Amino acid sequence: xxxxDIDYSDIPPLGKAFLRRASVAWPPVKKQLTIRLDADVLxxxxxxGRGYQTRINRILRVVMESQPRRPGRPRxxx
Length: 78
Fold this sequence. Notes:
- This protein is 38% helix and 0% strand.
- It is an all-alpha fold.
- The chain starts with 15 loop residues before the first helix and ends in a 12-residue tail after the last helix.
């Protein structure tokens, strides 16, 4: 099949907001920090084996991305 034969009519056009975000480097730079968690929360995170810090980051990212963006505030501190 040639590119010209592909039907793209069901794909919405990419807007300016998407293109602005598309220029952000991925993955974002990681920063080291110390965090205190409740023991039961940490045990729950570690119960699925290695990678609990990555799970913490993913959980926080889901929450962050679910929040409306406040005008004048960047989404991340990179």
